Amino acid sequence: MKKILIVEGNLREENQSFSEAGIQTHTESLKDSLAYFTDKLKTHVVNPSSDENIHKNLDALESYDGLIWGGSSLNIYNNTPEIKRQIEFMKECQKKIKKILAICWGMQVAVTAAGGEVKKAIKGSHRGIASNIEINENGLNHPLYKNKDQKFNTPAFNFDEVVTMPENSTLLASNSINNVQGLNFSIGDCDIWGLQYHPEITYNKMINLIIFRKKRLLERGAFKDKNEIDSHIEHIERENKKLDKISRMRELENWLDYLNLE
Predict the structure, then answer these.
(1) Computed from CA positions of residues 51, 56, 59, 60, in that sequence, does the dihedral angle turn out positive or negative?
(2) What is the CATH number of domain 2-201+249-259?
(3) What is the DSSP string of 102-117?
(4) Could you state, in chain order, the average pLDDT of each consecutive group of 10 residues for the chain (262 residues)?
(5) Where would I find the H helices in 135-176?
(6) How far apart are CA 100 and CA 106, in angstroms?
(7) Where are the beta strands (DSSP E) in the chain?
(8) Quick check: helix, strand or coil at residue 172?
C-alpha cells in the first residue's frame, strides 16, 4: 500500500466557508477522485498555512511515496505569512519526497519554491473551465499525458500563471491564456509533475464555486454582470455533457501509475 501526503492549499477559514455552502473542500474532491481509481492508498492530510506544529503531527517526509498538493484561492505574490509557510514547507518536501503532483495553486507553490516565478495572468483567467489546452511534443511523450487527447477542455479556476519555469523544466502543455498548463521539472531526486488546471474537480463543483464566489468575481471584474455569469455557467454545463469522467481525470490516473512504479 502506497503512502501519500495530501497538502490542502486553502486557509482553514476558506474551507469552513466551503463546507457551510455545501461545497467540498479541494482535499475532499481529491480524495474522492483518488478513491475512484484505487483503495490501496494510505493518505495523510496537512495544511501548512493553518496547522500549528505541523511537523509534530506528521510522519517523516521521507516515509511518503508521493505528495499531491492541491488548489487554493490564494495569490502567491501577496507573500503573506500563511503563503510563506506553504512555500517553505514545499521546499522541505522537494528535498525529501521523490514524486510530487502539483495541481493549480500547488504548481505555483512548487515553481516558486524551486526558483521560478508566478504573476497575475495578463491574457485573462479561467473561470471554472480552461479551453483548448494543447499537449506539445514533449507532453505527448511524457507519462503524464498517456492516453490523453492532444487538445482538450478541462475544469480550471485561476487568475495567475507561471511566467518563469524553474531550471530543469520541460513545458508539456499550453493554451492561449496560460503558456504553462502542464510542466515537469526536477530538483535533486524529486520529480514534480505540474498542472495549472483541475483534473480532480468536476464541472459541477466549478459551477457551484462560481455561484459561491459571484460577488467576489463581479468585484474583481472577472464578469461584467450577472447575465454574463449565467451565460458562462450554461457554457460549462454544455461542456459537462461532453466530458467523461475518465478523460477528465486521466492525469491523476497516470500519476498513480507512476507512483506504483518501483
Answers:
(1) positive
(2) 3.40.50.880
(3) EETHHHHHHHHHTT-E
(4) 96 92 96 96 94 81 97 96 96 97 98 98 97 98 98 98 97 98 97 98 97 93 94 97 95 97 69
(5) 137-140
(6) 10
(7) 2-7, 41-46, 66-69, 99-103, 117-120, 126-127, 130-135, 151-154, 157-158, 160-164, 169-174, 182-187, 190-195
(8) strand
